[in-house]
């Protein structure tokens, strides 16, 4: 993996210096944190997603990828189920992008889901 910035704790890009396939790496990173966003560096939609999550009391691990990490961008987009980044995962399950997050929020299912995966205090 190249050109990556991770904002979160306890995440490793390549454990013990081992190479992982992009899809395996995305799957592992999604499992390591209850709320993960894969995004392009400087993406305004990611900013909106982070603000909404923070407003309800959750803080996402944001993995910013630039154009040099094309394979990882493609793997994250494919895993998200909507084929694009930003790609949000809650409890290891794909939510989609900003539209998916807004849909969960407006339906009243976001906070219960975040609580279920341990991303919120009771």
UniProtKB/TrEMBL annotation:
The keyword Cytoplasm applies. GO terms for cellular component: cytoplasm. Pfam families: Glutaredoxin (PF00462). InterPro entries: GlrX-like_pln_2, Glutaredoxin, Glutaredoxin_subgr, Thioredoxin-like_sf. Keywords: Cytoplasm, Redox-active center. Residues 35-92 form the Glutaredoxin domain. The keyword Cytoplasm applies. Its main location: cytoplasm. It is found in: Cytoplasm. PANTHER family: GLUTAREDOXIN. Belongs to the glutaredoxin family. CC-type subfamily. This is Glutaredoxin domain-containing protein. It comes from Eleusine coracana subsp. coracana.
């Amino acid at each position: 993996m190249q050109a990556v910035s991770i904002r979160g704790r306890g995440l490793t890009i390549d454990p013990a210096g081992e190479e992982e396939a992009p899809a395996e790496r995305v799957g592992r990173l999604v499992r390591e944190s209850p709320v993960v966003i894969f995004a392009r560096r400087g993406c305004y939609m990611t900013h909106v997603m982070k603000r909404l999550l923070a407003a309800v009391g959750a803080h996402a691990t944001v993995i910013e990828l630039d154009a040099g990490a094309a394979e990882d961008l493609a793997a994250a987009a494919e895993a998200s189920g909507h084929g694009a980044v930003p790609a949000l995962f809650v409890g290891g399950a794909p939510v989609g992008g900003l539209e998916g997050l807004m849909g969960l929020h407006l339906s009243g299912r976001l906070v219960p889901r975040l609580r279920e995966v341990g991303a919120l205090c009771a």
